[in-house]
Amino acid sequence: MVERDGREWRDQQRHAVLAHADAEARRRAAEHAEAAELVALFVAEATRRGLPTTRLVARGYDGRGRYRTKLTGWYVDRAETRAVDVAGRFHLLTVSGGLRARLFGVDPEPSPAPLVIGAGGRDGESIPLRTLLNRLLGDGPSGPGSTTRPAAPRG
To answer: SS in 3 state form for the chain?
Structure first.
């Protein structure tokens, strides 16, 4: 009898964990879809306004090396480690680097855009993606192209 109760409890726990993981995956997918829509709208508006693009450069994980890419687009953050390319893809521009990367350049893969840049980081600084993209368009509080102001605290 006790063994059966233990098995039922483990089955319930396993079911709860799977349900939680499924809900988290759905939440993350919805967040990435919303962020992808923001990025697509930004690219369309930036193109319409003629916002100048730049050749994007990746940095090494250690922050020392700079590596050429074939990407053209707009840096999203002041550190130039996140960018949107002209095709509407979000990129984290940090790579492992090395001699081969220095000689031939790198081709960073696109990654899902987050709705909040820096969320969960150790420094506690985060800013909504929408705010950064609006600043690039010149619609933000800092004027055209500025991504240097921190997000206002929520309260």
So the answer is: CHHHHHHHHHHHHHHHHHHHHHHHHHHHHHHHHHHHHHHHHHHHHHHHHCCCCEEEEEEECCCCCEEEEEEEEEECCCCCCEEEECCCCEEECEECCCHHHHHHCCCCCECCCCCEECCCCCCCCCEEHHHHHHHHCCCCCCCCCCCCCCCCCCC
DSSP assignment of 16-27 equals HHHHHHHHHHHH
Ramachandran class of 97: left when φ > 0, alpha when ψ lies in -120 to 50, beta otherwise: left
Model's pTM, two decimal places?
Answer: 0.75
The answer on pLDDT for 72 being more than 70 is: yes
> How would you class 85 by CB atoms within 10 Å of its CB: exposed for 0-12, middle for 13-18, buried for 19 or more?
buried
Q: Give the pair of three-digit tokens for residue 132.
A: 């950064």
**pLDDT tens-digit readout, 20-54:** 999 999 999 999 999 999 999 999 999 999 999 99
* Residue 26: how many other CB atoms lie within 10 Å: 10
Q: Supply 149's token pair.
A: 């102001």
Query: Which pair of tokens denotes residue 84?
Result: 């949107």
Cα–Cα distance measured from residue 48 to residue 2, given in angstroms and rounded to the nearest whole number: 69
